Amino acid sequence: MKTSARRPGHRRIRIVRNLRVMVAAPARSPRCQADAHRVAARLTDLPRVTPLPPMTQPVLTVPPGAADLALGADADVLYVCAHSYPGPQPEGFLDTDLTTLSSPLTAKALILDTCWGAAPAVRRTLAALRPDHLPPLALLASPHSVPFDHHVLAGPLLEALLTGPRTGQWPQRLTAAKATALATNELAAHTRRDWARWRIYAISGTRPTP
User: Fold this and answer.
1) Could you give the residue ranges of the DSSP H alpha helices within the chain?
2) CB proximity list for 36: less than 8 A, separation 6 or greater
3) Label partner for 171 (CA 20 to 30 A): which of 37, 163, 179, 200?
């Protein structure tokens, strides 16, 4: 009869899986696509990281009305560079009406490089998309408008997040990655920007599990 006892000296092999990361931008914004491509280019050679989509298409270009293509992707980390409707109660995301989004949001971390990305309406929508049995989504976004030049934070932050420790809750990991990025020489020239606009949220899901 077989037993589960391990032989003396036998060690269990721990498999470290690659983190899957997706970069997305709206089809109607060449400027956002250019910024997203700059970020995606920094991720290609990171160890234990699998960029999505394939390297032949490093940035997912999202047509109007199709934000589910990004939010519903099978990725660990999503980075979205986009515009949003003005005002503290945006009605759309990636040129898509918030009320039409339906794909389950299973990513562990979401970085929204857009104005009003952490507005209450957006956070409620993200919670409604996230299955309730999953750990809280780690969201980095601004509840206010943000200047275009704030995109320079994204590359160093993603590098710190994807190459940093792989233990702990994702909101804490995202917080640590932001602190690491802001301490780099690369961002030393951008100290006058208001990085406090970018906040980390832990969003518990409310979508019933089938």
Assistant:
1) 30-41, 68-71, 120-129, 154-163, 170-182
2) 23, 24, 25, 59, 79, 81
3) 37
